[in-house]
Amino acid sequence: EQTEETLVIVKPDGVARNLTGEILRRIEAKGYQLVDIRMLQADRELLAAHYAEHEGKPFYEPLVEFMQSGPVVAIRVTGNRVIEGFRSLAGTTDPTSAAPGTIRGDLGRDWGLPVQQNLVHGSDAPESAARELALWFA
Ligand code: DAT
Ligand code: MG
Q1: Atom of ligand 1 nearest to the CA of 92
Q2: Which residues form the Nucleoside diphosphate kinase-like domain (predicted)?
Q3: Domain CATH for 48
């Protein structure tokens, strides 16, 4: 067994579309534990720290703007290999190509929305999970 923690964020599009419950349901159905949860309006400072690795990329500004556009739900999730497991549940970054059965593949509407509106964030490695959880659950 390899118990890990990860940070999941339901992005503003997920909250606005009332998909928070559906996303939590999928996480719980997979057998992961929700250990902390908070709804908040993220400010620029938090998002700049969270997305520091993407600073300077063409999608950085639209991403940070979008993430400030409404409330988000941050969740601390634990489970066996949950970092990889949640990213598998989420599907690939672009909802257009995300596999059916995944959160982004099933629920990510595609009518020309920008890629940043892909419903969820999930940490991608133990180091980023620790760093991000410290930011969102300070
Ligand atoms: P992920 O969220 O799958 O880990 P990422 O860390 O590479 O993806 O990027 C963070 C977010 O930035 C992603 O959820 C959506 C947005 N993004 C990434 N690549 C993009 C691109 N090529 N165009 C527009 N938005 C992008
Ligand atoms: Mg990422």
Answers
A1: 3
A2: 3-138
A3: 3.30.70.141
Cβ atoms < 10 Å from Cβ of 62: 13
Q: What is the reported pTM? A: 0.97
The reply to whether ligand 1 has any atom less than 6 angstroms from the CB of 124 is yes
| The two structure tokens encoding residue 86 | 């949640």
Domain that holds residue 64: 3-136
Between CA 53 and CA 61 the distance in angstroms is 13
- Per-residue pLDDT of 97-134, as tens digits, reads 999 999 999 999 777 888 999 999 999 999 999 999 99
Structure tokens at 105: 């593949």
The string of pLDDT tens digits covering residues 55-97 is: 999 999 999 999 999 999 999 999 999 999 999 999 999 999 9
Q: How many angstroms is it from 97 CA to the middle of ligand 1?
A: 13
Number of independent structural domains in the chain:
1
Per-residue three-class SS string for 67-126 = HCCCCEEEEEEEEECHHHHHHHHHCCCCCCCCCCCCHHHHHCCCCCCCCCCCCEEECCCH
